[in-house]
Amino acid sequence: MARYSFRLPDIGEGIAEAEIVAWHVKIGERVEEDAQLADMMTDKATVEMESPVSGIVVELAGEVGDLIPIGSTLAVIETDGDGDGDVEAPPTDTPVEEEIVAETPGAEEASVAEVAAPAPVAAPAPTPAPVAAPAPAHDRQVLASPAVRARAKDLGVDLGQVQAEGDRIRHSDLDAFLRYSGGQGYHAPGASRARADEPIKVIGMRRKIAENMAASKRAIPHFTYVEEMDVTALEDMRADLNANRGGRPKLTMLPFLIVAICRTIPEFPMINARYDDEGGVVTRYGAVHLGMATQTDAGLMVPVIRDAQDKNVWQLASEISRLAEAARTGKAKVEELTGGTLTVTSLGPLGGIATTPVINRPEVAIIGPNKIVERPVFDGDEIRRAKLMNLSISCDHRVVDGWDAASYVQALKKLIETPVLLFAD
After folding, report:
1. Residue 221: C-alpha distances to residues 291, 341, 364 (Å)
2. CB within 8 A of 410, min separation 6: which ones?
3. C-alpha–C-alpha distance, residues 35 and 51, integer Å
4. Exposed site from 94, 183, 197, 334, fewest CB < 10 Å?
């Protein structure tokens, strides 16, 4: 018998360690060559580790949530043969943030992101946890993220019994199921039942978000400025363009706001910058690489629209849609999640009256449009119906003064309230 020490390779430039976010094997189980061993998360991406040999797993480096140094042993596999050896995993060309997995009651797990079937294993699959009732054979295929599936498994919930509001089951759908069924079957409508306490280990993407947000608030003296804007004319223009868009994507408010941001940046270069704390250097960027805060099942991600200043509203709408979908399905590439110089964050229809967004460090500003509301306004001696929107900006007070932030937003306001200027040379 031979033992292979599987060492964690360098899976990203400058990465010293990676977090275990999922094990696909257990000690004592047989693993086949090229089968998945584990999912490892770096600062920005999740990388699948595959076994270079077939054999029995005899050691694993740690538990989900543990940080493993690059070059250390991740797993030890006992194989048929002579001698011992160290093996490093091959690098993965296209890391992904999260994989969406389809499952049907009683069926083996299958990756939607990959076409190839998983490698067979000799050991039988573990007996699934009991559920209230099997789903009918004609039930639709169920989509859920690994985090949702893991939580459902821990709670003993059959995802085939959970109704989804969208195209796949999310944590909110699972929460709704638990409220009415306690995770073990439905009870009478209207009945009240306290949910059990649910300790959740902060790991993976959620831990990265927590670390980044805490570091941003510790290091950056934030201030937020909020201004009201009349978007009546812009909304009318948007409606006209959408009515005549042909096969082009539907326009939301965001592409127009991005155009306004890019057109005003040359006068206020301190807004489109990054601050190197250690080096004490502020870099003001000529190009606008705009981060777009996007909510996903794994947590908040910020894909980046490269050279936003060179794109028109239709091109921006297409790029917004493409990047948001890539982030939500876990297909965003590392280069699409890094290198931003300024971020926009929007809660969409949830909106809110005003927000105080947290800066995406090491950037120095973040802009947050809020919801549009209709209210009567005075226009001279007349009263008219207007569509109004508050716009928030949070800035790093070490780099941006309050006067500069207010002046920048006033420049944005001029373009937003007179939208023909967005298309003027």
Report:
1. 21, 18, 10
2. 227
3. 6
4. 197
Cβ partners under 8 Å of residue 217, min gap 6: 358
401 labelled catalytic: yes
With b meaning 16 or more CB within 10 Å and e meaning fewer, what string describes 179-214?
ebbbbeeeeeeeeeeeeeeeeeeebbbebbeeebee
The alpha carbon torsion through 19, 24, 30, 34 (nearest 10 deg) reads -80
* Marked catalytic residue, from 297, 401, 404, 425: 401
Which domains, ranges and CATH numbers included, belong to the chain?
A: 2-88 (2.40.50.100), 122-181 (no CATH), 205-423 (3.30.559.10)
Beta strands in 261-327 (DSSP E): 273-276, 281-284, 290-292, 294-296, 299-301, 304-305
User: Global pTM?
Assistant: 0.64
Other Cβ atoms less than 10 A from the Cβ of 47: the count is: 24
Q: What are the residues whose beta carbons fall under 8 Å from the beta carbon of 261, sequence distance 6 or more?
A: 288, 290, 308, 342, 344, 367, 412
| 32/37 Cα distance (integer angstroms) | 10
Element at 173 (helix H, strand E): helix 171-181
- Taking only the tens place, the pLDDT of each residue in 258-288 is 999 999 999 999 999 999 999 999 999 999 9
Active-site option among 43, 171, 222, 397: 397
Residue range 100-119, pLDDT digits in tens: 333 333 333 333 333 333 44
CA 186 to each of CA 29, 116, 144, 254, 304: distance values in angstroms, whole numbers, following the listed order: 36, 37, 21, 41, 43
Q: Could you confirm whether 397 is annotated as catalytic? A: yes
